[in-house]
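Hi support team,

I submitted a single chain yesterday and got back a structure, but I'm not sure I'm reading the token output correctly. Could someone confirm the output below corresponds to the sequence I sent? I've pasted both exactly as they appear in my results page.

Thanks,
R.
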Amino acid sequence: MKSLRSRLMLNTLIPLMVIVPVMGILITYLLETQVFLGNLTNELTRQAVLVADTASAYLEIWQDPVRAQAFVTRVSPRLTAKVMLLDPEGRLIVSSDPEDSFLVGQVFNVPDAELLSAKDLPAEITMDQRKVTDIIVPVFSGREGGLIGFVRLANPLASIYERSQTLRQVMIIVLAGGFLLAMLLSWWLARDLERPIRQTTDAAFRLASGKNPQPLPEGGLDETRILQRAFNTLVERLQTLETSRKRLLANLVHELGRPLGALRSASQALLSGAGEDPQLRQELVQGMDDELVRLQGLLNELAHLHEQVLGSLDLEIRPVRIQPWIESLLPPWQRLAQDKNLNWQVEFEESLPPEANFDPDRMAQVLENLFSNAIRYTPPGGHITLHAAGIEQAWQIVLKDDGPGIESEEAEQIFEPFKRGKAAQRLPEGMGLGLSIARDLVQAHQGSLTFTSQPGKGSCFVVHMPIEISL
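Hi R., thanks for writing in. Yes, this is the structure output for that exact sequence:
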């Protein structure tokens, strides 16, 4: 897989691919011109002066070519350069290289006589393109002091210089090609890296501008794919929130319109004289009270939904006696169950701990939501069972009913906001927030709320709570 780290490393290596050869050529040039050339010049000059001093003691070698050849043959193995003896006019007398035999008698450039008369020129160094080609040292007679000839040492590396010049040109051409290739590769890598980032940036700008966001195709480097996947997840979440917002508004209109309409009808009936009949007045007031209770429940759900959005949920944890607390919540719900002809059964196990730490008001909201659902969906003549017990360092409440139940597919979505099963959709009350709120409240207490159900066999909710809560 492509990785941003590997791309960055490659982008870092590309300049090094250019810098290192350039530095190598520069160092090679400095070594060649400042160190190698100076050392070679000094060494050749030293050897030429030694040969000239030796040759000045043998005057016969300047007069007899045979003796000159013997002299050159004897000293040349100890030298690193080719040795030539020249007469005072610069004609070649003898050379240590047999291939130079055809050059015998040829005239070479030698220092002027005026310069030699002062005897201030120990050696003349001939250079070509800053490379030493040869060194010529004049030879003077020891007794008379006259010029008797020259010793010429030819640099054996002169031919190598030409090859090095060609090699240097090839290196420069290769370096220029590598530089162009590196530039093209850098441009391609930068474009490949920039494209998905630009797409994500443009999409984020469109999203911030309030335009309809569109999912991005995921591709490129691992890191850019992660960024694009995160953006697509954000878009999906925003679309889900927008759908939920529209659904919330529709539910609010429905949930507020029905009880407000009932209250308006009841109030108009009372204003029209229905209050003169005591029984009718009692029924109208009771109906108005029931609608106000439903509105209060809707208000509680909206308040908790606001807390979910803000991410704040304050709990007032304190020691609570469990059984008396549960018993204090039951009377109004038992009365509703009785009015619907439901059989309500409550069981408290001996294992139930006498006291636990939790927020009684918040947990009352949880149980009241479960009670409301059980009564709402259990048909007349059905049974509701509440079972409370203790388990190790926790306590739990199990609420069972023999209502219609739901399918397993619906059971997986029952705690999602605004989700309502098929049985719930047949009833007008509710926004689909109650169970989501109940689960969040239980989880805020470090507990769990689970649900099991089978079609036609009722439902079972289990509230599992720790005795001690660490906040």
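A quick pointer for reading it: The first helix runs from residue 4 to 55. Let us know if anything else looks off.

Best,
Support desk
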